[in-house]
Amino acid sequence: MLRTLRLATLAALVVACLHAAPAQAATTYEAENATISQGAVESNHAGYSGTGFVNYANATGSYVEFTVTAATAGPATLTFRYANGTTTNRPMAIAVNGATTNRDFPGTGAWATWQETTLTTTLNAGANTVRATATTANGGPNLDRLVLGTPSTGGTPVQANGQLRVCGIKLCNQQGKEIQLRGMSSHGLQWYYQCLNTASLDALAGDWKADVLRISMYIQEDGYETNPRLFTDRVHNLIEQATARGMYAIVDWHMLTPGDPNYNLSRARTFFTEIAQRHNGKNNLLYEIANEPNGVSWSTIRNYAHQLIPVIRQYDPETPILVGTRAWSSLGVSDGASETEVINNPVNATNIMYTFHFYAASHGTEYLNALSRAADRIPMFVTEFGTQTASGDGSNNFTRAQQYLDLMAQKKISWVNWNFSDDFRSGAVFTEGTCPSGPFAGTSRLKPAGVWVRDRIRTPDDF
């Protein structure tokens, strides 16, 4: 039955794609065939494509220069595949026909661990030069290839990417390309369900151009435990609404108080069994199984994941699962710990990611650095963040928030902002009284945080 449902979904996707504007096929340029200055072609680390890779000399100014051909003038994506087995960033200046932008190439964990970084540029029709030049005495990373593609201009995020999966330490689409999703989280369905209607979700998908909707279903605080049937049906409905608009949907088991996820384990088994059984034919879901564990150890959270993940996998073997981390999904930082507890004792399951939450006015450099280090070792997804304090209220720190967004763009960490409602707090994007009538498109009913995050969600994707 699962196979039949998957095939039906695939058939529908193929039909949809037939009506979408075809994208120009990606073209691969192997680094070993490019012009090399102060570097050598080698093949002593596994995992490269082609016949080898370029090992930059440890020198400022060493470079690899490609000549790439564009059928027409216009926007293009340049995806560099590289490995950096050190813990030191090896930044490079990327010059396209002489116009330069700087790009970080941080450590990948090992010389045989390859990652991608993508930038969007504008090319001339015909031949173009793309030069990647080391800007420090450490030289550049090992460079495997450059892939020339076209930005997605037609179709929905799900049409562009299909079934997601975890590949290595990144989230990848059905073609194996590393991607970043950006979108919004609902507020609690017990309080602000009226903010999730046809008009608001049309605006989120069309005007905001969001890739993903996080469906936040609280368990306590007048949530799921008070009426499991009502809240499960609300989640079913919102999954269908996101699917109809071509967005991904995160099913958020929003446990918070009590902070031990095992308190709600029986409820979680019941809920996710029904969700996975009904929606296993869809290719646009992610399951977040523990919003913000707190007051418990990582081993307790890990044990919970080991009990719940097999329940989901019995019915849905393909959807990525997102696992909360210690101390309100701070990787333990809010308890004085660090990401190493997860790195050294990961969940024993495949196709999973770990979650991180931050609020820019409360969580400074210590948290930012922990996320950066973790993302170099394990798959990370920021399923909740705000530009204000951890209460979801107070003044915005847009400068710190932008530092986080820059990091997440660089490392292709997907993110979801809190929250898509008209709650009185500064973290709710709409002014009070906006729901249910709107308007939801444009900026006339947005608070400052809403204007800020809408602008950043609307930035073109690198699909």
Automatic annotation (TrEMBL):
- Signal peptide positions are 1-25
**Pfam families named among the record's database cross-references:** CBM_6, Cellulase
In terms of PROSITE patterns, this protein maps to: CBM6, GLYCOSYL_HYDROL_F5, PROKAR_LIPOPROTEIN
User: Could you say which enzyme class this protein belongs to?
Assistant: hydrolase
GO BP: polysaccharide catabolic process
| EC number(s) on file | 3.2.1.4
Q: Which Gene3D superfamilies match?
A: Galactose-binding domain-like (2.60.120.260), Glycosidases (3.20.20.80)
Q: Which InterPro entries match?
A: CBM6, Galactose-bd-like_sf, GH, Glyco_hydro_5, Glyco_hydro_5_CS
* One MF annotation (Gene Ontology) recorded for this entry: carbohydrate binding
Residues forming the CBM6 domain are: 27-149
State the UniProt keywords alphabetically.
Glycosidase, Hydrolase, Signal
- Disulfide bond is among the record's keywords: no
Asked whether the UniProt record includes Transcription among its keywords, one would answer: no
Q: Which reaction does it catalyse?
A: Endohydrolysis of (1->4)-beta-D-glucosidic linkages in cellulose, lichenin and cereal beta-D-glucans
Into which family does the record put it? Belongs to the glycosyl hydrolase 5 (cellulase A) family.
Q: Tell me what this protein is called.
A: cellulase
